[in-house]
UniProtKB/TrEMBL annotation:
Domain of life, per lineage: Bacteria
InterPro entries tied to this protein: DedA_domain (IPR051311)
GO CC field: plasma membrane
Residue spans crossing the bilayer: 20-41, 53-74, 94-112, 124-153, 173-191
Protein's UniProt name: DedA family protein
Presence of the UniProt keyword Membrane in the record: yes
UniProt keywords, alphabetically: Membrane, Transmembrane, Transmembrane helix
Keyword Cytoplasm belongs to the record: no
Length: 195
């Protein structure tokens, strides 16, 4: 099922309505959808490198708006909407563990790491931020920075290196972003426990 969903998302890049689909996928990825917007963004930006930054801005804005929707779902509709979604994806237990151990600093760190590298998945963090009433203003600022950095960096890579960088992005960028996220988490923990 996941492979069919991935292939369907990828097929949207060839449509005339691809920008709308990119906005839609980026929006729902941040609150309920499993496939990241990168799956649609990458082929779009490779086929039209002159529009890579435009696509990055569309994806960023839609992703931040989707994150806000996720925050509201977590804050106002956890039992009715968020819990069934988390259970469907098998993320409910992980969510509960995160909820118990999360203070404001950890939430902010997770917003940045999930925005940059999908670790943990962005939909889990946006819903969690709403559940624990993380300040919406800080949530929006961190989402703009993290998601904007991710999509604009991808745009820069694609504009600078073109098709040869695609394989690297698809195979290794997640790993590098994950290592960067792990370094941020380690730095946070070191600072927290050394004080």
């Amino acid at each position: 099922m996941l492979r069919r969903l991935y292939d369907w998302t990828l097929s949207l890049a060839a449509r005339k309505s691809a920008e709308w689909w990119l906005a839609f996928i980026a929006f729902v990825e941040s609150s309920v959808f499993l496939v990241p917007a990168d799956v649609l963004y990458l082929p779009m930006a490779l086929s039209r490198p002159d529009k890579a930054y435009r696509y990055a801005i569309i994806a960023t804005i839609a992703s931040v708006l989707g994150g806000i929707a996720g925050w509201y779902i977590g804050h106002y509709a956890f039992e009715a909407v968020a819990k069934p979604v988390l259970e469907f994806y098998g993320k409910y237990e992980a969510f509960e563990a995160l909820k118990v151990s999360s203070g404001a600093g950890i939430i902010l760190l997770m917003l940045v790491t999930s925005g940059l590298s999908h670790l943990p998945p962005i939909k889990v963090v946006t819903i969690l931020a709403g559940v624990v009433s993380f300040p919406l203003g800080w949530f929006i600022v961190s989402a703009i920075i993290a998601r904007g950095a991710r999509f604009l960096f991808l745009a820069w890579l694609l504009r600078t290196y073109g098709e040869p960088i695609r394989e690297f992005i698809e195979k290794r960028l997640g790993l590098l972003a994950g290592l960067g996220a792990a370094a941020l988490i380690l730095l946070y923990l070191l600072v927290k426990y050394l004080h």
